[in-house]
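Worked example

This section walks through a single chain of length 112. The input is the sequence exactly as stored; nothing has been trimmed or padded.
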Amino acid sequence: MAQYDEAVDGVFVALADPTRRSVIRRLGRGPTSVGELAGGFPMTLPSFMKHVRTLESNGLIRTVKVGRVRTCVLNRERLALVDDWLAEQRATWEERTDRLESLVGELMEEDQ
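Given that input, the structure is written out below as tokens.
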């Protein structure tokens, strides 16, 4: 469970930055070279590579270097961690609000 929590934390940290979210969004359409990805952002390549390394170290993307070209590929399975965590939270809160709604209904019936 601790490893799961650390992995979820890492994914949320990586997704907290708008540049990294834009990279993820772009990679959702398919693999792309770092050069093409970087061209869409107003920053130097070394600064952009820090974002790529953060995404890669948290497992959201992987990179493959062929010759001089490094290509980024989205790891959709890692994004599923966020889906699972959100689904778990949604189920917990829906259960709690359902119980509260039931209690309020019972109290209103008692008052009548």
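What to look for: The two ends are 48 Å apart (CA to CA).
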